[in-house]
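Entry 14. Ran structure prediction on the chain below.
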Amino acid sequence: MSRSSARAATEPLAALAAVFAVTAGLALYAGTLGDTLAGVGSDRDLATPTADAVERQLTTGGVVDPGRVPDSRSAIPSGYEANVTLRAERQWSAGPTPPAGADTDTRTVSVALGPATVRRGRLRVAVWR
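Output, structure tokens:
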């Protein structure tokens, strides 16, 4: 066998080994990435983005209107239950009582209690299936 025929036989073999190595690496990476992302959807934080949407719906000019609390449930993602509670000298609430395992978000907001009367309050949003 001449040198050129031996070289011709080993080049395709080396290329095939390189393709195999790259393919195996990509498969391993994709499998690891898939396993990592599989747990992301189950422990997803639902309360924070829901509380953001609820706060936007309740707020005008940076102040929360307690009269809008009953309508705030329209900001809840479909397929979920939620409770929205606002406290500032009084309490306003919409939705069923949340279970112990509900995902919650609590934040400080400015609440309009009357004409020219704004007090600090707490907005709590609980979300569950």
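The longest strand covers residues 103-114. Will compare against last week's run tomorrow.
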